[in-house]
Amino acid sequence: MTEVSIVIVSYNTCAAVERCIEAIRAQETNCEYRIIVVDNGSRDGTVERIRARWSDLSVVAAETNLGFARACNLGILQSSSEYILLLNSDTVVHAGAIDALLDKLLQDKRVAVVGPRLINLNGITESSFGPKLTPFTELFRLFVQWCVDRNIRTVLSLVRLRASRSRFTAWVSGACLLVRRNVAADVGFLDERYFMYFEDIDFCSSIRKLGHRVLFASDVEIVHVRGLSAQTAPEATARAYQKSHLAFYEKHLPLWVPVLRVYLRFRPSRPF
Predict the structure, then answer these.
(1) pTM, rounded to two decimals
(2) 237 DSSP 8-state letter
(3) Are strands 176-180 and 83-88 parallel, antiparallel or unpaired?
(4) How far is residue 263 from each of residues 168, 238, 245, measured CA to CA in Å?
(5) Which residue has the higher pLDDT, 270 or 19?
(6) 225 closest CA partner among 118, 69, 86
């Protein structure tokens, strides 16, 4: 039977991690799975709580906050499965979703990464995939997110319509991302220069450069409560976002770095 390693990174989100694990454990799957929780030095008792409730889970307790990318890599290195599911602690996996995502990879060897449609607690579709990131596509994405945050119905409808069809894309959200382990290893796993944000876009870009495909699966749905970890330390999150933003441009769009520095100086320092 095919095995999937599910890597969940947590940082002061004890209740969310429990809800995430409960949702996984409540369903029957056609694949075997192993849950690996990597805790980034939480101070809310996450490690103790998870170990007390589920003695069969693998819990990696870091002494400090390693950042999302480094914590994911640590979890991946604790696994041996052919398939790795990166899953945010603030997600709720619907019944059948893991099997459905896995089937996408099993059915098409060209696909190395697959991500589902993400919705929030109100059932509103998130923008969780997109084209190659450029200053222009990023500005458009920021505008769309601004509209979504303000419940502008026309834009909400367009986002929902866009997410109603599966398609090959440049990237899918790291909130729920299933990847072939051998391909992840070929690109050196996630780039650890990204503490938070942009690591998923960078990861998918590296994989696509090797000739593999990234698939957005509209028929698979996951609930995502955005930004719980970020809410525990908003100022640190803002700094991490800016640093990762610059790191992405320095790596992929170096000519635009001076423009980005000016933009970040005047823009409110918060992630979208």
Answers:
(1) 0.94
(2) H
(3) antiparallel
(4) 31, 14, 11
(5) 19
(6) 118
